[in-house]
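Crash report, auto-generated. Payload:
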Amino acid sequence: MAAYLARRLIQSVLILLGVSFITFLLLYVLPADPVRQIAGRAATAQTVENIRQQLGLDQPFLVQYGRYLGNLLHGDLGRSYLQKTDVAELIWSRLPASLLLMAGGIACELVLGLTLGVIAALWRGRALDQGLMVGSFVAVSAPQFVVGLLLLYVFAVRLGWFPIGGYGTFAHLVLPALTLGILGSGWYSRMMRSSMIEVLRADYIRTARAKGLDRARVILRHALPNAILPIVAMIGIDIGIFMGGIVVVESVFGWPGMGQLAWQAIQRVDIPIIMGVTLVSATAIVLGNLLADLIAPLVDPRIKLR
Amino acid sequence: MKHWLASTALALCLAVPALAQDYTPDPNAKPGGAIVITYKDDVATLDPAIGYDWQNWSMIKSIFDGLMDYVPGSTALRPGLAESYDLSEDGLTFTFHLRPGVKFHNGREMTAEDVKYSLDRVTNPETQSPGAGFFGSIEGFENAGPDGLSGVKIIDPLTVEIKLSRPDATFLHVMALNFASVVPKEAVDEYGADFGKHPVGTGAYSLAEWTIGQRLVFARNETYWRAGVPYLDQITFEVGQEPVVALLRLQKGEVDVPGDGIPPAKFTEVMANPDEASRVVEGGQLHTGYITMNVTQPPFDKVEVRRAVNMALNKERIVQIINGRAVPANQPLPPSMPGYAKDYKGYAHDPEGAKKLLADAGYPDGFETELYVMNTDPNPRIAQAIQQDLAAIGIKASLQNLAQANVIEAGGAGTAPMVWSGGMGWIADFPDPSNFYGPILGCAGAGEGGWNWSKYCNEALDAEAVKADSFKDPSDPARLAMWSDIYVKIMDDAPWAPVFNEQRYTMKSPRMGGEDALYVDPVSIPINYDYVFIKE
Amino acid sequence: MTDVTASATKAPAGALRRLLRRKLAILGLAIIAVVVLGALFAPWIAPYAPEEQLFDGLTLEGAPLAPDATFIFGTDLLGRDLFSRMLYGAQTSLVIGVVANGIALAIGTLIGVTAGFFRGWIGGGLMRLTDLMMAFPALLLAICLAAIFTPSLWIVAMVIALVNWVQTARVIYTETTALAEREFIAAERTLGAGTGRILFRHILPHLVPTVIVWGTLGISTTVLLEATLSFLGVGVQPPTPSWGNIIFENQTYFQAAPWLVFIPGAAIVLLALAFNLVGDALRDVLDPTQRGRD
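Recovered output after restart:
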């Protein structure tokens, strides 16, 4: 176990190194000069050159990358060119909003997905089941910006139940979290359905039923926990999907999180922020995958650590 | 020759009628109260040497002061931290007499040393100020560095002398720019690069709280040197607020002024509601939206082609697309700018005439080209309207819809044949006609990387511009006439196709008081925080 | 072992018959057929040119027109006929869906098969590459790439392909390793069959069902990614309509003119749904063991 963990951690670090290198390279060849953005429209050529030198952007690519890595080792993500603030501080200030949104998204996808999956499994083969499964396909086929705009239109603009966007209270969170969660709920309801059907077929459930135990009790006490576990173990994998999702959802709802930060930084070639957000996201994805792999054997003995 | 002795507004208007009368505050104005203002984008910095954004420009104005200032709601200069100044006969030496007893927010008294320190700092390349170039006329600017500007001298604790290397009619405007704000050295040293997060100035408000990504709170400076102002006890800026959300919150009474204005989709709705429309203030702004054409490369090296483009545009239709929130433009200067050529008619919409011109230039069947445009609404839409107008005379322009940074890069490098300026357009830094020339139409900006995206360089006009800027009084009618003439000549060469001048529409909550001009202040955008008040 | 090979080649005909017995698959195929026909015959069906900014397409205040008899889907913010733009937008969605997904599928299959069949350092290296790609926030990567290469229809397709091949590669890799360990392959090897023969005669044919399933499901993913990139303004460039960029262009108006957002929105959902339905049905029909998410 310890050896496995060590190997996976080393692998993760190498992957992150690769991500940082590729992103840095992409930003290096980007046909836009961050120095001109910093220098502004009234700047003289001399000012532009001075700024370029101070930021070290006149250095060869590998020197720049090496220096970035060096700073990274000291926990320094650099300083935003245009926001004039440490990237770590910027990300830190945006992180709570994004984490809240992701937590809301996970809650929505689990509650919706698992409930609907169980219902579909219990009513297997009936119209309700079929309807729910078509619904789950619609959920995974709907782009998040369409879902977001639709929810906004119906529940905020028309019905006025929720604020039209923004951040602050629980009411603000509902629609963005739902938007983020719907995609996943489609997958989870399908998986939950299969998992539940499989568990219901299992011998111990049949025995319990044969012993005359109440159906509801059997389902709640025995079948449900066993069916849910392997699915919950997969949440870690969702982090990657969420990292893309927040860019869109935050933009639709004006949610002040990392997605907006990244999007604005890309617009203005604020390289330190783009690098920082990419690395933080990649770290979250790598850790999420690792976590999923570590939990899987705990809940499903058939899976072994590789 | 003293230009003013302005401890009172009366003395000022008697002494120099040419300089506008100072502001007479509303007699009904009451001190007290707090307001809420929203913005979508976070504020990057409140360091006056660095800040150059839409939202921090007016915030910095309220925290800091420069030697010069503007009469609220107007483009007229008035004294700031300098009580008066002298200008030498050759027009090269300014001597500023500072107002005594002005205190920084940290309690220390402001002196001539602070003025020199601040100018040295903003021109020092280490500071990376985007505004350093404005100070180019100060002697020793070329060698600016840690040792400071040789042209700025401290005569005594309340007197500063600034020597110029060439006469510069706009110099007083430059001294009123945020970049020329006076900052205390000890605070800059204490916070270093984070001074922008812990600003200390002499302004009407001081920064009380800043939660990055959420809000900034300004508190009234109780010891502000201008008597009676500001009125408000506190201003809260909430950032990260979508314009649509901000407007809805205004309608609910939670917000007093949406800093980003009325979003396009809500505009018709607001204007259709008499109560809401009555709270919308409209004003000109020193902005022009234009298309640049790269004059160094075919086909735009031919003046006929550039004129044809000017004639092809249906500007009324383009203005309609942005809900009529602009007026069609026929020259680089906006109408509210001194020096605007009122009698100039420009190029009328005439597709047939444009086709003839194209044929004369050797393009009877038109040609293919590219139009660069920034990818945020409404710019791609405007560009498509332009594209259709061009197609009508045979010019097939494909759109290059890119992030702001990429458009600026392509424009600066001269690889973009045409650029629609929207989103990166020129809003004047100070209300003087010269501000629309140097970096964007003059030879100085035409080099690699410069903001003169049409790469138009007319040395004869450059010489005239220098002459016009050698006047001592920026508002001298002869000077303004020269500038009008320069821009009319530019339009003859047509490196640009001016499209429209955006109008500003600011909406306010019912409790906001103060005359309308304060809400469309041409300098303190979006509103003048120092003079507005709460009516209740 | 002969019957395994035979079933792999015979599968398509039988599979099609079984596919057509499923109602949802038929629904999916019908939607796809409508979109394809609309795209193909757009020049004849569309009442206006998609780029034409109609003089009477806007109100005097510059607001778009709601759907009526003249403009059955209304007009957009530039006074263009939305119905015509939707038809031409279908072309964009389909071209990108098919091309980008085709490339992604090709890259994914190539890498998956190579890594799974050859193992060793080649396989290890390739799989590390896919791990690396998995760790990228895909949307951010796509936005960066789109910003570097000025987006045109083909560039957008390439960008999507570049971030979308990973899933296919992983699935194909797993399949290939499983196949390579099967007894009949080992038997072939002992009989002295060459690498090429094993690869082309035995491995690749068995991968066909998986490739078909993933190819179909992948179109759905691709359509969604194209729409998302266009929605963020870094996808297909105007005035070329795509369902995503129609929403991008009009979203600030979605309260006043919801049809401008929800008509193209519904089209994207339907098309993605159709490919998902068909793909899922194909999965059941071609390979009943491949259920679930991955």
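Post-recovery validation: Chain A has a mean pLDDT of 85.
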